[in-house]
Each structure stands twice: as structure tokens, then as C-alpha cells.
Amino acid sequence: MKTSKPRIILFCTLLLLSVSTSFVFAQTSRFSFNTYVSDKGDSLNYRMLFPDYDTLRRYPLVIFLHGSGERGSDNKAQLKWGVMNFATDQSMILHPAIVVAPQCPVHQEWSNFSEDSITHQLSLRAVPSMPMQLVIQLIHQLMKTLPIDSNRVYITGLSMGGYGTYDIIERYPHLFAAAVPVCGAGDTSKVASIAHIPIWIFQGAEDAAVNPMYSLDMVNALTKAGAHPGFTFYPEVGHFSWLAAYSDPLMMEWLFRQHK
After folding, report:
1. C-alpha angle with apex 170: 145 to 63, nearest 5 degrees?
2. What's the CA gap between 40 and 144, in Å, rounded?
């Protein structure tokens, strides 16, 4: 009995989709569901990847800040982009780490910048946003309760999370061993305080959501301040520069080499 070619193609397509879906679900399930509650009763949902049950080691901590489209209260959407690259078998073998992905509530932001309407220069406001305050509190709690190497705390984020990455290192410049902001923006007047932090910036050259000039301005300001930032400027790429950034094995190797 002959099977028609269209049926074979359809079967293979469905099989690939099933395998792909199962693979993604398996990775997602590696992240535990958690909620941090502050002394004041404010809460922050987060997912956490724990590398191994090994009581003899201390692990690096990676904080991953998602973009604006993943805000909410489901404690799931923040795993949509980027962070799953830390949860592959290969990554967990080569770079075992505690990875934390908090979820920003709807209508709130990781960062707290003001923007000049004419120059578009960002200025860091004195007080962090509420989600950022909770992220910092969560980091300190985890460092007290989990086997974390305090010399290897890393921060990364995309889009809104890229803004948040600059915000948090400019507020707490001595906490982090490295930072990877993807299509973000920061306060260029504060770069002297973060010039000592290894930073690798990623940006799409045709980004219509976050002006590439923000990343270029940060690179130039950091360089003038004596820093040596990495900068990857993807040609013919719009806002989704994080697809290539978090899939880059060189970036992963670089990140996990960094120590305070």
C-alpha cells in the first residue's frame, strides 16, 4: 500500500512539532515557580533554574529581566524569550548556574528613567521602580540562602529588561560581575561608576522599537570613561536582536568567565 507524499510530509511536520513542543516544555519545567514577598507585603513572581544538587559547590547567579510584552501575573510569560538558552542540557553541563527570571507586573517597569523631550537623554531617577526594588531584595535574600558565588552575579535583560539592566548596574555598581544589556538604554552620565564592570551590549541595526542610538551612545560613553565594552551590532535585524544574542555560545562563554 502506497502512502501519498503530502501525508508523509504532514506526518513528519506534526512529529517535529510534537518533539519541539515536548522539548520546550521539558526545559520550561526545569524552572521552579516561586514568589518573593517583602517585609511590607509586596510580592514578585519569579522562576528559578537550579543547576544540580551538589552541596560542595557554589554557583554563579544569573538574573534575567524580560521585555514589556512578558509582563503579567501568570509567572510563565517571562520564559518566552532568551532565558531558555540557559536551561538546555548543553548549557547546564558547560555553565551550571542558578538562573532567576522575575516577572514584572502589568503597567510597571524594571527601570526608572526620565527622558529629555528634546535630546532624548535618559536620567536615572533617585528611587528605583517597585519591581526593581523587589529584584534587589530578592537577590540579597537568595545570596543568603542559596550556594551562590558572590563574585559571579550576572545581570542581563532584553528591551525593557535591557533598560532594567542599565538601571540596576548604575544603582548597584559593585554587586555585579558582568552585564549583558540587549536592545536597551541607560543614563550616559552615570557610566563612570560602571566602567569597571565587564559589559557586552547587543543591538539590532534596524530596531524600530528601541532606537539603536541608545546602545551606540552607551558604547561611546563607556569607552570615553575608560571601559572596554563588547558591542555586537546586527545588520538587517530589528527588535528581536535577543534571538541571536542569547544563542551566541561566545557570549555565554564570556559571561561565565567573568569574576569580580
Report:
1. 35
2. 19
Say how far apart CA 251 and CA 106 lie, in whole Å: 30
* CATH C-level class of 32-257: alpha beta
> Which residues have CB under 8 Å from 160's CB, separation 6+?
65, 66, 67, 68, 71, 104, 109, 110, 111
Return the pLDDT at 22: 43
Q: What's the first-to-final CA gap in the chain, in angstroms?
A: 67
Q: Give dist(CA 83, CA 235) in Å, integer.
A: 23
C-alpha cell, 60? 554563579
Amino acid at 132: M
- The full set of domain ranges for the chain reads 32-257
Q: Which tens digit of pLDDT belongs to each residue from 67-108?
A: 999 999 999 999 999 999 999 999 999 999 999 999 999 999
